[in-house]
Amino acid sequence: MTTATPDLQIDVIDNQQLVRVLLVEDDEDDYILTRTLMSAPENRNLRLDWVEGYDEALERILANDYDVYLVDYRLGQRTGIELIQEAARAGCHSPMILLTGQDDKSVDYSAMAIGAADYLVKGRIDSQLLGRSIRYALRQAESLAELLEQENKYRSLFERSIDAIFVADQSMHFRDVNPSVEQLLGYTRDELLKMNPARLFDQFDKLREMRFSVREFSQIKDFEAVLVSKQGRKRICLISVWAVEDANGRPVWFQGIVRDITEQKKAQQELIIAEKLTMTGKLARSIAHEVRNPLTNLSLALDQLVDELGEQNEDTQLYTDIIGRNVERIGALITDMLNSSKPRELDRRPQDLNDIVRETLGFVTDRIKLKQMTLETHFSTQDCTANLDREQLRIAFTNIFINAVESMEPEHGRLVVRTMCLDESQVCVIIEDNGGGIPPENLQRLFDPFFTGKQSGMGLGLTATQNIVNSHKGHIDVDSHVGIGTTFRLTFPK
Known about the structure:
It catalyses: ATP + protein L-histidine = ADP + protein N-phospho-L-histidine. Keywords: ATP-binding, Kinase, Nucleotide-binding, Phosphoprotein, Transferase, Two-component regulatory system. This protein is α/β, with parallel strands linked by helices. It contains 14 helices and 21 strands. It has helices at about 30-40, 55-65, 80-90, 105-115, 125-160, 180-185, 190-195, 205-215, 260-310, 315-340, 355-370, 390-405, 440-445, 460-470; strands at about 10-15, 15, 20-25, 45-50, 70, 75, 80, 95-100, 120, 165-170, 175, 220-230, 235-245, 250-260, 350, 375-380, 385-390, 415-425, 425-435, 475-480, 485-494.
């Protein structure tokens, strides 16, 4: 065997960089023929080295000392196809040209399938064809290297982006997602690639609407939809999608960005609620001032009238009692209105959420039994201790429990109460009923002061409940379907 030690320094011949070529060939006659072809004037910038064994060839390839490899198809008990495959697995990006003694289409297809740069039949090679094949292989390798560099750069941006970025087909099935999508939705990349996207949308009509817009206009910007995570948490998101077209202008795939605006929406909602409470507070104070003065005079006049009447007959006693009770009721309503509209002064202490919920349920258990309804409880076995105001939360929970009981049919009602620890920083109470549900047009106004769907009541119970929750820096979410029931989800920081 004849080999040459590669020269690692860069040589330049007539402004052409020297190309280092390694021939992997177990037939010395073929090596001599190839060397002769390499000696032609047009190939003067090509330098040829030769090895004949599979193992030595792989060692040279892994050392990355050559620009191009000419690989014979037959290498003893192994093949050039195997060598090219093993080199590719080892991370070799230098072009490899497969040489074979016979023109075999199956070998040709195999060579192309494994990434060989070219396929040459030995008996048909001349110096020009060999030189041109090597030059084209190098140019192709340079182009692929540039593409790989660009791909790596954009892949890095894709993977490290804070925004949730995805690639999808025309049916909006995922083809790729970045880690931010996994974090937002709680699913792994593999799970998302196999998933029907309809499972992620709170309302399937939203997915249908988005698909139509993308197909019709090739893009959609800031489309608002509610996505449901693997853990069941609903996230309000803005989705932007645009088409990537082929050379003929036809969309071949789609890419998109998802922005989670849940916290932003909650902050806006809390600001609106705070403004409403401020206005309600001003109105309540104004009403209290205007009503309490004459109410006080009325109460004093009633007391004086009772004193002057002395011993009253039965009818007089009946009327004075009615007046007295209604004066007290008006005063209580004024107090409730004032309390529901002003920020709560909390006495927050470490409290077990399970104990507060159990204690509050005791106040409504008689109503549930009287109406022959079912109460189902699931208390967390984890530590649900948080800084809470026990008395205020009893008021908040009582308002929701009573509303739930009153919304359900006697003998058919089912109230389900769950507590859980969402993570190390939050505790949660979920209250579900199977009542009549809340119409969508009323759901947005549910916590507005003086809004009520009942024939009686001032509509301040849920306003006070939300005020208490907000004072705890917590969140209250409501999900309701007419004819099915309503679910309240109250979350508090630990």
